[in-house]
Amino acid sequence: MPSVQPLIVSPEEGESFTIGQLRIVSRVQGHQSGGGFELYELTLGSFTIDYHVHQRMDETLCVTEGEIEFFVACRKHHRPAGSVVFVPRGVYHGFSNHGPTRARVLALFTPAGSQHEYFRALEPLFAAPSLDTAAVQALQKQYDQELVPLSA
Question: Which residues face 107 on adjacent strands?
Fold first, then answer.
């Protein structure tokens, strides 16, 4: 019998996290894929995912609604729904929805890196009256989310 079982998830299912104007829904967590990947659905109001780099996982982003401005390796790319961006580990990247309409993005991390634990720990930090940047930086380091200056 395989250790990884099939998974069927309805649109309303999945652990969700809210970070400012960003809502993240876990569609497939790493333990559900045997560590092979994680899949998240991001719904963005006017929001920016800061420029960062992963050293242990690749990230694939698929715009499913709206338009996203991607920064990949210091280059700006505006992409509409239907676009896909693959960012190998070690490549700096970030993205924004400048609004006014919302955007949706599927984010695939390979291999899995327990990003749901990162989002779960990050959510209360952003809900607090003041942001504890040292705690955010410690989480980012723990979960392979190194922020880098846009000039890097």
Answer: 40, 61
Is residue 1 pLDDT above 70, yes or no?
Answer: no
Q: Is 93 helix (H, G, I), strand (E, B) or coil?
A: strand
Buried b (16+ CB within 10 A) or exposed e, 72-103: beeeeeebeeebebebeeeebbbbbbeeeeeb
Q: Going from the N-terminus, what domains does the chain have, and what CATH number goes with each? A: 16-145 (2.60.120.10)
- Residue-wise pLDDT for 104-130, tens only, equals 999 999 999 899 999 999 999 999 999
Q: What size, in residues, is the chain?
A: 152
Q: Could you tell me where the beta strands, DSSP code E, fall in the chain? A: 16-19, 22-28, 38-44, 47-53, 58-65, 67-72, 75-80, 84-87, 93-97, 103-110, 146-147
